[in-house]
């Protein structure tokens, strides 16, 4: 391991906390041989969050991604002999929290992590110093524990040096002054010890990451936030126990606090206090800070209630007359607009990567996953929920980050509904339909900053019209019906009977032009792209391992002109993926039209009559066949239309300039009056209509760990042209699937009597009370859930091993502490509704 500062390095990692150390170690393990790891602070503790953040790891989250990252991190800490398996306990003071802990159990089962509920008596036996008079029960995670991240960093650096045969240079006490960018690519890192040329640079310096990114003209959207912590000791109770921790880490969830043994001390941490956000420029230097830059003094008044609540739950410990406060800080950590890490390539500067906003409990696995991404193009654990590009073009402003961080801080230990919507910094991105939708009492949900109606209160009259069809499908339980309305089901039925308008979907819209555009896109997609002008192609987009990066539609507008349409939530990551693959000398230009074109879907049996009445062109079946696209003139609006459907109905997606969007809405609305046209929300588009048709959704059914054969999307076969992932895709088609994506229905919503319940997604699928696991070790769980009002059933999608993927097979789903019978309706991709697609093709 060299400490001489180099003039060049293949890879520079900025930040030598647990994240930077992990990234350097795994890059070395992946074959990188020339790595510079630098930090402005000293080692082993350079002064960031690694040195003070509470070092416990509670593996179970409602996010599969974060749970798997934490489990993999625990395995790595164990391998480095820096992990103590103490177990972890989350206790509930309220019935509402107990229900949430039941959901915790189902998430644990779905993601393959052990966990169970404990009675008050079991808790008292396990943690005798808790005041069990004030709690109602708890969730026990036997895999939880604590780690030593500073020691782990030392081990990682040593291993990286070994793997690179001395090719690792570690440079502490080194301040980054600038990042040099040439021709859109990173070229060098300027420091107070000299300038080092670099082919790739990873920013892994925690809450300083935005400051470093700004040097290259890009943004990493996070803000420093205070997490208060005090250490009290010596505690007489702990004197008879050896080691750092002998009892489970305790999370007092309703007060948003934790209490954990640390030798003879008790560490009390709080997320209960008001959000206290810092600007990165306010953080003192190492020389100025009394303890470290990320450990400012405790804000006493903000901790008063926390101390009161801690005294209430562990009075025996904190009332110890020998004990006193030995350490108290406002510990600084990174908070992002949605609480998830910020990982991946920063697409405006080639070779520049973000590995930021990562907690100690996920850090080793994040370092491994990002190293895999950097060296081979994909990671073993799908990181789509942490991809930094999810905020591209809308979520990077300082005000947005602060507002969302302020709101999100209060969710860290909160009870967060899976469909809960953010309230701050809204509305941000609106379509030209927004004002009219607001007049119609739209209930807006947000995706990638776009305001999208989920349903319309103005359609409430449809509930009476479809009362008979909706019987038994309404949700009496408040949790199940939160962020939902039966109006969605009525809107769905109206669309099936008449005609509906859906918009704007907030699509990512990218045009590719140039002589090499066809060849380039052919090399990116499973489907054949070299089709006739006017044809559309729905296609998976794969990584080299054959797993899903995306799924989208590509239309050919001209010989050298193609249009790519993708979901709004995936727009930033898809833009980065395609942009990073354009060959350097290729005649290909990518044009982002996401903010230039609005989209209005018109679907239903009467859709043709409505559109024909205002279109100058012939939109008959013969003139405008399904799965084609062409220019149309709707009244005064010059538009472009695709005849396809995500809801399984005849109709079109109409694309028009944003400035003409309002007029487009008015024309269609007026033309549809004789057919009782109704605006319907994304609840129909993204859930009810989609599930009745068995359509897959990226980030739910489609992830890196599943291939198109398993997902039922192998209908393209294997084309002659090469494309990313072709070899793995071809192999998947030739071998037996380890799992098949199936559509299931709930057979009984109240098998034990009482209130009917409706699953929301993420629940484990069981056989004989045990979670089903395929031969690849993947648990079967509900990837999407929603009611299909036309088929009269609550539908679930899940991957099942071959022996279970049989139509009519009876299984069970675990939801909120109870098992519900389910039946396999469809094994594969055939739609449950209109299986021959007669409606779309009519």
Characterization of this structure:
This protein is α+β, with helices and mostly antiparallel strands. The strands form seven sheets. Strands 1, 2, 9, 10, 11, 12, 18 and 19 form an eight-stranded mixed sheet that branches. An eight-stranded mixed sheet has the order 6-7-5-14-15-16-13-17, sandwiched between helices. Strand 20 (442-447) and strand 21 form a beta hairpin. The longest helix is centred in the first third of the chain and has 17 residues, at 95-111. It is globular and about 85 Å long.
What is the secondary structure topology, with strand pairs?
Elements: E1 8-14, H1 18-29, E2 35-38, E3 56-57, H2 64-79, E4 83-84, E5 88-92, H3 95-111, E6 116-118, H4 120-126, E7 137-141, E8 145-147, H5 149-163, E9 168-171, E10 176-182, E11 185-191, E12 194-203, H6 209-214, E13 223-233, E14 249-252, E15 257-262, E16 265-270, H7 300-313, H8 315-318, E17 324-335, E18 342-345, E19 352-356, H9 363-376, H10 398-409, H11 434-439, E20 442-447, E21 450-456, H12 461-465, H13 467-470, H14 478-481, H15 487-497, E22 500-503, E23 508-513, H16 517-522, E24 536-542, E25 548-558, E26 561-566, H17 571-581, E27 589-592, E28 597-603, H18 607-612, E29 629-634, E30 637-642, E31 651-657, H19 661-671, E32 678-679, H20 682-693, H21 708-711, H22 726-734, E33 740-746, E34 765-767, E35 770-771, E36 782-788, E37 793-800, E38 810-815, E39 818-827, H23 838-841
Parallel strand pairs: 1-2, 1-12, 2-9, 5-14, 12-19, 22-32
Antiparallel strand pairs: 3-8, 4-8, 5-7, 6-7, 10-11, 11-12, 13-16, 13-17, 14-15, 15-16, 18-19, 20-21, 22-28, 23-26, 23-27, 24-25, 25-26, 28-31, 29-30, 30-31, 33-37, 33-39, 34-35, 34-38, 36-37, 38-39
Helix pairs in contact: 1-5, 1-9, 2-9, 15-20
